[in-house]
C-alpha cells in the first residue's frame, strides 16, 4: 500500500473491528460494506458474519454479486428477509423512507445479534455525513457501529484500500437500493421496483453500465440518467432507449440531459441534491 495515510486508516479499521467479540455486518455487497465484511472476516474469522437484507428493493444482480464476493473472500454470509414493503411509513415514501428501511433491517438482525451476542456494523463513511441519510438516525438508536467512520474513512479511502487489498468491489459503481429511484411522495410498491429493475437491466444492455431509471408520476414516467459524457450517445439511441424502457412497463421515457448523479431525488425534498 503506497499511501501511509491509507495504511494508518486500515490499521485503525482492523483495531476497531478487533475490539468487538462478534460482528454482524449489514452487507449489501457495495464497496463500503464489502470492505467492512472482508476486514471483519480477516480479523474475527467465524465470529464475523455478513448479513444481506433481501426484499424487492434489492436488485437480483446485486444479490448475486454479494453472494459471489462473500464466497470468493471466505466471508461467512447469510441472507434475511426484511419487511419494509409491509410498513405503511416506508410505502408512503416520505423524506424519512430510509429511516423505516433501516428500522426493518435492524428488526430482522436483532434476533441474530441477540442470539450470537454480536454488535451490528454498518458501512457508513465520512462522506455519508453530509448527505440526506435518515437511516443513520435509526442506526444510532439501535446501537449499531460504523467502523469505517470510526477509522476516518471517506469514500475515496474505501476505494483505495479496497484496491490495495485486492477486493473486486474497489471500482464498483455506487448502487443504492431500488426504492431510491422512486420519486418522494409516490408509493413504493413491488410492481414499481420490479419495473425499475427491468428498465435498468435494459438500459445497461444498450451499453450504459452506469445508469439510473427514476420513476415519476406514480410509476408511469421513467427519467433515465446516464453519465454526462454518455448523454449524446443515449440521445442517438432514443428509439432503442424508449423501446427498452417502455418494454419494462413504463408509459413514458425521458432522458435527463444533466446526466447521472447520486442523490438527484433530493431536489424533491427542497434540498440542493446533485445538480
TrEMBL record:
Organism: Pseudonocardia adelaidensis
Domain of life: Bacteria
Gene Ontology MF terms in the entry: transferase activity
Record InterPro entries: Asn_synthase (IPR001962), LarE (IPR005232), Ni-pincer_cofactor_biosynth (IPR052188), Rossmann-like_a/b/a_fold (IPR014729)
A UniProt-annotated Pfam family: Asn_synthase
Coiled-coil residue windows: none
Keyword Methyltransferase: no
Domain Asparagine synthetase: 11-84
Keyword Kinase: no
NCBIfam families registered for this protein in UniProt: ATP-dependent sacrificial sulfur transferase LarE
This protein's name: ATP-dependent sacrificial sulfur transferase LarE
Record's keyword terms, sorted: Transferase
Amino acid at each position: 500500500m503506497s499511501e501511509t495515510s491509507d495504511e494508518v486508516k486500515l490499521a485503525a479499521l482492523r483495531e476497531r473491528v478487533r475490539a468487538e467479540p462478534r460482528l454482524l455486518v449489514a452487507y449489501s455487497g457495495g464497496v463500503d460494506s464489502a470492505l467492512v465484511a472482508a476486514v471483519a472476516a480477516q480479523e474475527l474469522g467465524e465470529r464475523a458474519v455478513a448479513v444481506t437484507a433481501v426484499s424487492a428493493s434489492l436488485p437480483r444482480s446485486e444479490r448475486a454479486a454479494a453472494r459471489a464476493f462473500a464466497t470468493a473472500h471466505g466471508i461467512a454470509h447469510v441472507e434475511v428477509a426484511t419487511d419494509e414493503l409491509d410498513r405503511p411509513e416506508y410505502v408512503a415514501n416520505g423524506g424519512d423512507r430510509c429511516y423505516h428501511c433501516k428500522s426493518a433491517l435492524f428488526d430482522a438482525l436483532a434476533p441474530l445479534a441477540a442470539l450470537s451476542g454480536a454488535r451490528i456494523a454498518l458501512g457508513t463513511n465520512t462522506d455519508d455525513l453530509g448527505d440526506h441519510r435518515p437511516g443513520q438516525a435509526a442506526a444510532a438508536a439501535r446501537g449499531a457501529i460504523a467502523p469505517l467512520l470510526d477509522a476516518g474513512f471517506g469514500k475515496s479511502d474505501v476505494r483505495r484500500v479496497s484496491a490495495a487489498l485486492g477486493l473486486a468491489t474497489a471500482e464498483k459503481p455506487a448502487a443504492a437500493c431500488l426504492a431510491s429511484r422512486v420519486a418522494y411522495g409516490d408509493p413504493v410498491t413491488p410492481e414499481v421496483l420490479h419495473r425499475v429493475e427491468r428498465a435498468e437491466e435494459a438500459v445497461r444492455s444498450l451499453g450504459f453500465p452506469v445508469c439510473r431509471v427514476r420513476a415519476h408520476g406514480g410509476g408511469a414516467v421513467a427519467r433515465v440518467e446516464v453519465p454526462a459524457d454518455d448523454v449524446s450517445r443515449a440521445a442517438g439511441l432514443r428509439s432503442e432507449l424508449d423501446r427498452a424502457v417502455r418494454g419494462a412497463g413504463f408509459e413514458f421515457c425521458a432522458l435527463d440531459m444533466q446526466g447521472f448523479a447520486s442523490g438527484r431525488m433530493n431536489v424533491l425534498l427542497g434540498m440542493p441534491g446533485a445538480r
